[in-house]
Amino acid sequence: MKIAVIGAGNVGGTLAQRIVEANFADVVLVDIAAGFAAGKSLDLLDARPLLGTEYGIVGTNDFAQIAGADIVVITAGLPRQPGMTREDLLKKNAGIVGEVVDAVKRYAPQALLLLVTNPLDVMTAYALKRSGFSPERVIGMGGVLDSARFANLVAEALRVPPAQVQAMVIGAHGQEMIPLTRLCTVGGVPLPDLLSKEQIAAIAKRTVERGAEIVNLLGKGSAFYAPSAAAFRMVKIMATDQATIVPACAFVDGAYGLHKACIGVPVLLSGSGVEKIIELALDKKELKQLQAAADTVRAALEQL
Length: 304
Ligand code: APR
Description:
Helix content is 44%, strand content 20%. By secondary structure, the chain is an alpha/beta fold.
């Protein structure tokens, strides 16, 4: 198994570390900044004797090195800087993602493509369009991260181990995410039987704002431990072909009353990518929110 990680920054570098430490695939780490990926890869290689791992990692600024990759994860992009509008960020990151997708088409045309760069849902839609890949091979990481954040906050509120919480967040990765509070369970018990409406609403709100909460505290940069862990989980599912239901940004055409949209929904993810879109029985309000989120993504894509 060969996994290419594009962008060796906080998310990409930490993702590469997680893959190498899990010892199941070779990694190629690519960054436009000459030496940056190469330096990180040497550092990661030096850790192998200490960790007992043996898979290789190559760091480079040469996209030809991704040749034959089974999975390509795109984390390359700029974070939003002061004074930059969302539209500026959208254009800049679309430029970067577009270049990367062209390189993937050229050197690794068989790969599964996992998008991490923000704005996530628009970048996924753009990568799908630009690559011409079949929709099951182009996937966005958003829902797994948002669901983990939601689950963590529920676990803290109830003082139970985080792994006891089953949570699902759909919609856009951003303000228009939809934490499905009524479907959350803890040890098999529905969340509404464990916490008050107000408590649940507060957790859902904090989940939506979690990225901003972290950005404000960090002072520079944005979250990367949980984002890289979420990307790692998706990479592992695909690399090991262990079909698993996760929320992810995928191409939806028909389900949820959506027409050719890229948005976060539950999918059956496996070694072939998105095997199936799972259509949840949403209530009217949730369905409206999902459709509105899909419309926002479509409008941004049209802008591009
Ligand atoms: N090709 C390859 N790498 C690139 C390119 C490019 N065309 N353009 C930029 N990069 C690299 C940068 O050199 C940098 O090392 O992408 C890396 C991004 O790393 P960080 O700035 O540390 O950003 P990070 O925190 O990793 O976030 C990356 O993931 O979660 C999202 O919102 C986040 O869109 C952002 C992305």
